[in-house]
């Protein structure tokens, strides 16, 4: 292990396996790079140059502020337009949903009405059948159909025989 010459951000030590010449080449390349960069020397500016730079910076700042305000005003109007379009779309969607709900409710009410009418017709038909059976039974030898209000003593014969 050999120490490297001081360098910015470099490693403190180099592990070298092999030739000493390779190490020397590395050191020389490093020194060349350090010579090429050279230290930065601050240039001296006159008052006129400083004033000119300050004025240019102020103009750039004002231009940037103006651009920012312009962009904000453009986006603000576009945001309002988007909001209005969104509100219109929302209203249309709500109207469609209400229309669909009303249609579904109408359909359900119609189906319920039809079901109730069918049940009423069935009950009327059944009652009519029972009434006919009871009226025909008075003149025939067949006993009337059993009613839940009649007593068990009225029907002395079992219902299976059909007498």
Number of helices: 2
| Cross-sheet strand order for the largest sheet | 1-2
- State the share of residues found in helices, binned by percent: 55-70%
Structural class: mainly alpha
Low-pLDDT regions: none
Largest sheet, if any? 2 strands, antiparallel
- What series of H and E elements makes up the topology? EEHH
Radius of gyration: 53 Å
Residue share in β-strands: under 5%
Q: Report the span from N to C terminus.
A: 126 Å
Coarse morphology? elongated
Mean pLDDT, all residues: 79
Number of DSSP strand runs: 2
Describe this protein with a few key phrases.
163 residues; mainly alpha; 2 helices; 68% helix; elongated
Structural write-up:
- By secondary structure, the chain is mainly alpha-helical.
- Helices cover 68% and strands 2% of the residues.
- The protein has two helices and two strands.
- The protein has helices at residues 20-37, 47-139, and strands at residues 2-3, 13-14.
- It has a two-stranded antiparallel ribbon.
- The N and C termini lie far apart (126 Å).
- The model has no long low-confidence stretch (mean pLDDT 79).
Précis, in short:
The chain is an all-alpha fold.
How is the secondary structure organized here?
Layout lengths: L1 E2 L9 E2 L5 H18 L9 H93 L24
Antiparallel strand pairs: 1-2
